[in-house]
Amino acid sequence: MVLQRLQSLYLLIAAIFLGIFTFTTSTTITNGENEFLIGALATGAAGKTAPNFVLCVLNALTAILALITIFKFKNLKLQLKLCSICILLTIVIAISIAILTYQALDGGELHVMLSNALLGLAVVFFYLARRGVAKDKKTIQSSESFR
Q1: 36 beta partners
Q2: How far apart are CA 17 and CA 93, in angstroms?
Q3: At 75, phi and psi to the nearest 5?
Q4: Distance from CA of residue 61 to its chain's centroid?
Q5: Half-sphere exposure of residue 136: CA atoms within 13 angstroms, side-chain side
């Protein structure tokens, strides 16, 4: 189906952004000489970090769901739902990071990394993909009414 090319590209870009985000630090909290990092693969005091299971699973799930959505081009209704779920999961990731940051803040100095923009960009690309799928669905429905 020729109509799906742009949406597939949007979904792929969003999945790549989420993949890159997984390997970055989201926020850093400095309290005197102590530094606390928050990210999917590195959460904890500097030098003693461990992967955050919730963030890793949410990132992986959302990226995999975006890739699955690309191949569901024959079922536009399902593709619309999957795009919406991807948007929701990406927002949940951002909220989870905000909660983790708030819990760890404890009077320290907060440094928000530029990598957080990747989440916002992923939401934008998921929205663009959803809008494109909805447009294709409308085009197909209007062409079927002519038959």
Answers
A1: 29, 45
A2: 13
A3: -120, 85
A4: 9
A5: 21
Query: What string of pLDDT tens digits covers the 147 residues of the chain?
Result: 444 579 999 999 999 999 999 999 999 989 888 888 999 888 888 888 888 899 999 999 999 999 999 999 889 999 999 999 999 999 999 999 999 999 888 888 899 999 999 999 999 999 999 999 999 888 888 887 766
125 and 12 Cβ atoms separated by less than 8 Å:
no
Handedness of CA 117, 27, 100, 48 (dihedral sign): positive
Mark residue 52 as left, alpha or beta (left: phi above 0; alpha: psi -120 to 50; beta: remaining): beta
Which pTM was predicted? Answer: 0.89
Token pair in block for residue 21:
């985000």
